[in-house]
């Protein structure tokens, strides 16, 4: 199971105007992926689907993160849900 850590609620906002002259805004948040067997987590950026950042804490990917796109390829659009340690169940 993937374990993702959010350590800050800060949001990075990138905005501009596309080539088709339409405004856009991309909101992202820094997260850390804990990889089994590695000493340190891997830093990455996760795009936010809505305007609200994730709270500090541990998360995993929701099954809703995976979908089949228009070309019949498996795609991922990360949606985080709270992490529940299976060892503590």
Q: Report the CATH superfamily.
A: Nucleic acid-binding proteins
Count the helices. How many? 0
> What form results from the Cα inertia axes?
globular
Report the helical percentage: under 10%
What value does the average pLDDT take?
A: 94
> Biggest sheet: strands, sense, closure?
6 strands, antiparallel
Could you please describe the fold and organization of this structure?
- The chain is mainly β and 89 residues long.
- It has one domain: OB fold (Dihydrolipoamide Acetyltransferase, E2P) (Beta Barrel).
- The protein is 0% helix and 47% strand.
- The strands form 2 sheets. Strands 1, 2, 3, 4, 5 and 8 form a 6-stranded antiparallel beta sheet that branches. Strands 6-7 form a two-stranded antiparallel ribbon.
């Amino acid at each position: 199971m993937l374990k993702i850590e959010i350590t800050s609620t800060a949001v990075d906002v990138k905005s501009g105007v596309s080539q088709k002259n339409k405004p856009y805004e991309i909101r992202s948040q820094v997260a850390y992926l804990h990889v089994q067997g590695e000493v340190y987590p891997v830093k990455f950026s996760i795009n936010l689907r809505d305007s609200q950042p994730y709270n500090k804490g541990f998360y995993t990917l929701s099954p809703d993160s995976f979908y089949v796109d228009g070309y019949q390829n498996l795609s991922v659009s990360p949606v985080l849900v709270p992490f529940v340690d299976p060892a503590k169940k």
